[in-house]
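> forwarded from #structure-qc
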């Protein structure tokens, strides 16, 4: 699980006492960081209700806040900002003290809710608080969001695995992804306008694609299910389901925290799979990599995709050793610090560098970019 923002003593007291302590805080030289301000806004969103204010009056003063939080946004924010024991207390107070039951207890709210990824993340984080009838409604919402994600990714998969790029041949078929940029620039340099610093393109060249004939490959997705990785868990589940239907690829999906859970048998139903995921807890990455290595059948045709923030809670040395063992046997290892629509990573850069030195590739990708990366490696 990712480490919440570190706070000094003055900041902690400022968050406990609230906005009324701003003057004393400033006099003592305490300035709230962006994360501390986000914590303050999340606490105000909840506890100002105890002062008899309705949600319309919960706007923070002085223009420091962003847009007003919805309940799903608030749930996602506190899981990003606070440690596990604080999250549990905040969620309990929200439900028991202030009856904020939008997501976890109110069927009318779930029926009216617009299915989207923000709400999906909130459902996954609070499903353990839901009664069976609410859980059934939540499951329908999860299924709708997953369906939309799969429709989009399936198109990306179809394009990525349509054939390998053949740089020896060209075609008249125009496609941006097949653009031969170097030849196009070379053939049009005579049209360079030095005044406006522009090249007028008259002739555009495109590489051809050869039909793909896949040898059997294994793709082993290892997904960190700590709370900070919830978006990556969602997209990894959808990605695994799309890969499952591709010929010549045997897909495995493994979730881990301090335990390892093989979810491969549920890959065909990503909705059911997500409802089984248990978010939170510690992180034992090396154990998961060891399990992934045990699944490898033909090393030179195996790809291990480790989706994690790389904050190892167990043995860092063993993690590096296990990754090096995989790459030494010619298996491909890709470490993804984020797998979602935005690909905005937050991760342990030192560990990422050590994994690169051990032979892994490390980055952050959207699911479509991952599909393209896999297609390129498999097609080589």
């Amino acid at each position: 699980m990712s480490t919440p923002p570190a706070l000094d003593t003055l900041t902690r007291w400022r968050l406990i006492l609230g906005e009324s302590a701003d003057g004393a805080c400033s006099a003592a030289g305490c300035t709230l960081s962006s994360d501390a301000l986000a914590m303050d806004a999340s606490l105000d969103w909840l506890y100002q209700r105890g002062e008899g204010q309705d949600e319309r009056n919960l706007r923070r003063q002085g223009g420091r806040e962003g847009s007003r939080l919805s309940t799903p946004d608030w749930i996602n924010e506190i899981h990003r900002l606070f440690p596990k024991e604080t999250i549990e207390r905040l969620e309990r107070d929200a439900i028991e003290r202030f009856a904020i039951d939008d997501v976890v207890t109110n069927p009318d709210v779930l029926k009216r809710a617009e299915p989207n990824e923000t709400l999906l993340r909130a459902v996954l984080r609070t499903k353990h608080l839901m009664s069976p009838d609410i859980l059934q409604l939540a499951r329908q919402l999860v299924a709708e969001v997953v369906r939309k994600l799969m429709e989009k990714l399936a198109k990306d998969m179809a394009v990525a695995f349509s054939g390998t790029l053949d740089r020896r041949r060209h075609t008249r078929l125009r496609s941006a992804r097949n653009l031969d940029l170097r030849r196009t620039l070379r053939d049009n340099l005579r049209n360079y306008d030095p005044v406006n610093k522009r090249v007028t393109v008259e002739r555009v060249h495109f590489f051809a694609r050869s039909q793909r004939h896949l040898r059997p490959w294994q793709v082993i997705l290892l997904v960190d299910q700590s709370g900070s990785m919830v978006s990556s868990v969602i997209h990894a589940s959808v990605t695994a389901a799309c890969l499952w239907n591709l010929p010549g690829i045997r897909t495995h999906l493994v979730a881990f925290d301090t335990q390892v859970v093989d979810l491969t048998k549920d890959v065909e139903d990503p909705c059911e799979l997500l409802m089984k995921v248990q978010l939170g807890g510690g992180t034992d990455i090396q154990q998961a990599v060891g399990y992934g290595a045990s699944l490898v059948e033909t090393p030179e045709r195996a790809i291990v995709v480790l989706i994690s923030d790389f904050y190892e809670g167990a043995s860092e040395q063993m993690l590096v050793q296990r990754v090096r063992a995989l790459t030494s046997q010619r298996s491909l290892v890709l470490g993804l610090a984020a797998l979602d629509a935005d690909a905005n990573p937050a991760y342990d850069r030192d560990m990422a560098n050590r994994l690169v030195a051990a032979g892994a590739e490390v980055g952050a990708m959207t699911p479509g970019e991952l599909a393209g990366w896999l297609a390129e490696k498999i097609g080589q």
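QC bot note: The chain has three domains: 1-100, 164-210, 217-379. Residues 164-210 form one domain.
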